[in-house]
C-alpha cells in the first residue's frame, strides 16, 4: 500500500506544526488516522478508501446521492469546489429523540464547517463513515470504540504481521477483506476478458476476445521487505472464462480471495501466576502443537566472482586449502552448497579462491622451489563465504548468472565480475517465548510462558483458553473494541457463522443497541445449547471458570471469547544472542561487541552499581577480572575447571590497566607497584606490571 501515500511537506515546511494537524477539508480525501511515525508524523499521510486522482493532481471523492430520503449508490465523484454546493451528511445521525425534529433538521458539513440545517434532497449527498479512513483502518471491526492512537497502532501492526502456514479466516469481519486485495500489487489481475488456455504453477496463458494471447508469469520464491516468502498460486483452471480485473492468483496472505492473516483464538482476560506482568501474554501448548503461529522465512545471499586480468581472477573449487572434509561435505564438485542441504551457523556456502600474481621479492627462493618441485608458487587467497552468525535453515534454490561484458560496461553494473551466484535459504520458525503477538486494536504483548493444557483454567464445558491476556491494559488504553470482538467472536464460534458488524449500528439507533444485541444472542445460544452457564443473568458476557491444577472454582467470573491474533516480525530469534567462547580484542583483551562479530555481553557501569548494591562482591570480581581482560587469571581459571591440576589463584592486574600504564610511559612517566608483607619482614615486594 505504499503507492497510496501523500507527502504534505517540502524542505522548508517541516517546522510548521499546523501542517501536521487535521483540516476539515481533508474529510474523505485523506485518512484521519493513518500516518507515519517519528519526525514525519502528520506530514506523510495516506489516501482515503474511495478517492480518484483527476487531471493535474486534483483529488475527487466518492459520494452517495440521496433521493427521497434514501441513499442511492451512483458513480458520483466530486472535487472540493463541487462540495461547497452540497450539504454533506454523515450516516444520518439523529440529533433528538423526537422523530419529527430529525426529519426536517440534519447535521451537515458545508463550507468547511459543521452546521445544523433543514434537510433537502436536491442539495444533499452522503459521505459514509468508512470513506473517512484508508484500507488498513477499515480492517478493524469496532473502530468506533477505540482510542485513535490505538487504531493507528493496530493498523501499523497489521502491516508488520508475518504470513502463517496454518491461517484461518476471521470470524468477525468488516467486508473490506476482499477489496484490499484488488488494491495490492502482490497479486495478478486479468487485463482483458478471455478464456484460460493453460494454468500452471509458473504461468497463466489466456486468449482474450481479440484472439490475442496474454501470458501472466507467477512470482516464485520472492523475498518481501520482512524476509518472508511471496509465493503465488493460480486461482483459475483450464477453460475458465475470466473477466477484466478478475483475481488470477493468490499468495500467502489470501484465503479464498480474502485477506487473512492470523488465527482465531479462545481468549481469557485475567491473570495466570504473574506471567501477564507488563502486557505479557500466556499461550497454551495446543497453539504450539497445531502450529497456529508457525511461519516461513527466507534469506538471500548474493556473491560475485570478479577478475581484473588473466592472472588475477576469482573462481570456485572444491580443492580449497586448509579445510577438512567435514566442512566440505555439503558442497558439490564446483564448491557450491547443494540444494536441500541443512546448514547451521559457521557452515560454508560457497568456496571462492583468488589467485593473484606473486611478487618477486625473493626470486632466489622461487627458483629453488621450482627446481625441486617443478612448479611455480601461486599467491592463493581463500575468500570463502560462510553463513552469518545466528542464521540457519535449508537451501531451497541456487541460481547462477553469467554477466554480459557489453551490458556491464554500458550500464556500469557488476563491475569487474563475470559470474553471479544467488543462494536461497528457507527457515521455518515456530512460536517461542519472546515473540510478539498482537490483535487488531493496538493490543500487543510479548509471549512470556507456554503453559501445559492441564494447568490452564477451564470453562464448564472443559474448554481451556488458547491465550491469556491481562485485563489491566484495557481501561488505561481505552481500546474497548477487543471486548466487543471477543463476545461477537464467541457468538460466531457457537453458531458456526461469520459476523459482519455495521459501523453505524449505535449511531442510527441508540448507544446501548449493540450491547443488548450481543446479550440477546448469548441468551438465545444458552437456550439453544441447553446449558445454563453460557449466559449468566447476573453477570452477562462473563463466565465462571475453574483452576486447572486444583479444580477449585475461582472467586470471580472472567470474560472469555474468540478474538483474532497474529504474530509480528519482531521475533526473539533475530534479537537473542549468546556465546560460550569467542574472539577478544588485540589491545584490551576484552570480548568483542556485536552479534555479527560473535561478541559477548558487555558489563557496564550501571550494571556494576547493581551488583554493588546487592553486595555481590565475588560475582563482581569474577565479571571484572576472570571473565573480562585478566589474561593470567583467565588461563588459571580454565586450568582449574578443566584439569584440576592447579590451584585457583587470586586475580592479577587487568590488561586495560596495563594499557593505561603504557599511555603513561608515552608521557615519560614510570609507575611501579609494591606490596608490603609480614613474611618478608616488612620488605617491599615488587609487582611486575610491565612485561
UniProtKB/TrEMBL annotation:
Molecular function GO terms recorded: DNA binding; DNA-directed RNA polymerase activity; ribonucleoside binding
Root EC class: transferase
Segments forming domain RNA polymerase Rpb2: 16-53, 599-674
Mainly localized where? plastid
Compartments, record wording = Plastid, Apicoplast
Self-association and partners: In plastids the minimal PEP RNA polymerase catalytic core is composed of four subunits: alpha, beta, beta', and beta''. When a (nuclear-encoded) sigma factor is associated with the core the holoenzyme is formed, which can initiate transcription.
Q: What is this protein called?
A: DNA-directed RNA polymerase subunit beta
Amino acid at each position: 500500500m505504499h503507492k497510496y501515500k501523500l507527502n504534505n511537506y517540502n524542505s522548508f515546511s517541516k517546522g510548521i506544526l499546523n501542517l501536521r494537524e487535521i483540516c476539515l477539508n481533508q474529510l474523505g480525501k485523506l485518512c484521519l488516522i493513518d500516518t507515519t511515525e517519528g519526525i514525519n508524523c502528520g506530514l506523510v499521510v495516506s489516501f482515503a478508501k474511495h478517492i480518484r486522482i483527476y487531471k493535474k493532481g486534483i483529488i475527487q471523492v466518492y459520494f452517495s446521492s440521496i433521493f427521497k430520503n434514501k441513499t442511492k449508490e451512483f458513480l458520483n465523484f466530486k472535487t472540493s469546489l463541487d462540495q461547497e454546493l452540497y450539504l454533506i451528511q454523515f450516516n444520518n445521525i439523529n440529533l433528538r429523540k423526537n422523530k419529527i425534529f430529525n426529519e426536517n433538521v440534519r447535521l451537515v458539513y458545508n463550507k468547511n464547517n459543521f452546521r445544523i440545517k433543514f434537510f433537502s434532497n436536491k442539495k444533499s449527498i452522503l459521505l459514509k463513515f468508512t470513506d473517512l479512513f484508508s484500507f488498513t483502518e477499515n480492517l478493524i471491526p469496532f473502530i468506533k470504540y477505540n482510542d485513535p492512537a490505538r487504531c493507528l497502532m493496530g493498523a501499523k501492526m497489521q502491516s508488520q504481521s508475518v504470513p502463517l502456514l496454518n491461517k484461518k479466516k476471521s470470524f468477525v469481519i468488516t467486508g473490506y477483506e476482499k477489496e484490499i486485495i484488488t488494491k495490492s500489487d502482490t497479486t495478478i489481475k486479468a487485463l482483458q476478458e478471455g478464456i484460460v488456455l493453460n494454468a500452471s504453477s509458473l504461468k497463466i496463458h489466456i486468449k482474450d476476445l481479440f484472439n490475442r494471447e496474454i501470458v501472466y508469469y507467477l512470482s516464485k520464491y520472492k523475498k518481501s521487505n520482512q524476509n518472508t516468502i511471496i509465493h503465488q498460486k493460480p486461482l483459475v483452471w483450464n477453460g475458465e472464462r475470466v473477466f477484466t480485473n478478475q483475481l488470477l492468483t493468490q499468495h500467502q496472505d489470501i484465503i479464498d480471495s480474502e485477506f487473512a492473516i492470523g488465527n482465531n483464538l479462545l481468549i481469557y482476560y485475567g491473570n495466570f501466576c504473574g506471567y501477564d506482568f507488563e502486557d505479557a501474554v500466556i499461550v497454551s501448548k495446543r497453539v504450539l502443537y497445531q502450529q497456529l503461529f508457525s511461519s516461513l522465512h527466507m534469506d538471500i545471499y548474493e556473491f560475485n566472482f570478479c577478475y581484473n586480468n588473466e592472472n588475477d581472477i576469482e573462481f570456485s573449487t572444491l580443492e580449497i586449502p586448509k579445510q577438512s572434509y567435514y566442512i566440505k561435505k555439503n558442497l558439490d564438485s564446483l564448491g557450491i552448497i547443494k540444494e536441500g542441504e541443512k546448514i547451521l551457523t559457521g557452515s560454508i556456502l560457497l568456496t571462492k579462491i583468488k589467485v593473484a600474481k606473486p611478487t618477486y621479492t625473493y626470486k632466489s627462493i622461487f627458483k629453488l622451489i621450482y627446481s625441486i618441485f617443478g612448479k611455480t608458487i601461486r599467491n592463493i587467497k581463500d575468500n570463502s563465504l560462510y553463513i552469518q552468525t545466528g542464521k540457519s535453515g535449508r537451501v531451497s534454490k541456487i541460481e547462477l548468472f553469467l554477466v554480459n561484458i557489453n551490458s556491464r560496461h554500458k550500464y556500469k553494473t557488476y563491475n569487474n565480475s563475470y559470474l553471479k551466484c544467488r543462494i536461497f535459504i528457507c527457515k521455518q520458525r515456530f512460536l517461542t517465548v519472546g515473540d510478539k503477538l498482537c490483535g487488531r486494536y493496538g493490543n500487543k504483548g510479548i509471549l512470556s510462558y507456554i503453559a501445559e493444557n492441564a494447568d490452564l483454567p477451564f470453562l464448564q464445558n472443559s474448554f481451556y483458553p488458547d491465550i491469556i491476556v491481562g485485563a489491566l491494559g484495557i481501561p488505561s488504553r481505552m481500546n474497548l473494541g477487543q471486548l466487543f470482538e471477543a463476545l461477537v467472536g464467541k457468538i460466531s464460534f457457537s453458531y458456526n457463522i461469520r459476523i459482519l458488524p455495521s459501523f453505524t449500528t449505535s449511531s442510527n439507533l441508540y448507544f446501548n443497541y449493540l450491547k443488548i444485541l450481543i446479550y440477546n444472542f448469548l441468551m438465545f445460544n444458552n437456550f439453544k445449547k441447553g446449558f445454563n452457564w453460557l449466559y449468566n443473568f447476573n453477570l452477562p458476557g462473563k463466565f465462571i471458570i475453574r483452576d486447572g491444577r486444583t479444580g477449585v472454582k475461582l472467586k470471580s467470573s472472567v470474560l472469555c471469547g474468540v478474538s483474532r491474533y497474529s504474530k509480528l516480525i519482531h521475533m526473539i530469534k533475530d534479537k537473542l544472542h549468546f556465546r560460550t567462547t569467542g574472539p577478544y580484542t588485540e589491545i584490551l583483551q576484552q570480548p568483542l561487541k556485536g552479534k555479527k562479530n560473535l561478541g559477548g555481553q558487555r558489563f557496564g557501569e550501571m550494571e556494576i552499581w547493581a551488583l554493588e548494591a546487592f553486595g555481590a562482591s565475588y560475582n563482581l570480581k569474577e565479571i571484572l577480572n576472570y571473565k573480562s581482560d585478566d589474561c593470567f587469571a583467565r588461563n588459571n581459571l580454565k586450568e582449574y575447571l578443566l584439569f584440576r591440576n592447579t590451584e585457583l589463584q587470586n586475580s592479577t592486574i587487568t590488561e586495560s590497566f596495563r594499557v593505561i600504564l603504557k599511555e603513561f610511559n608515552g608521557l615519560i612517566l614510570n609507575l611501579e607497584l609494591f606490596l608490603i608483607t609480614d613474611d618478608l619482614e616488612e620488605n617491599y615486594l615488587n609487582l611486575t606490571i610491565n612485561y
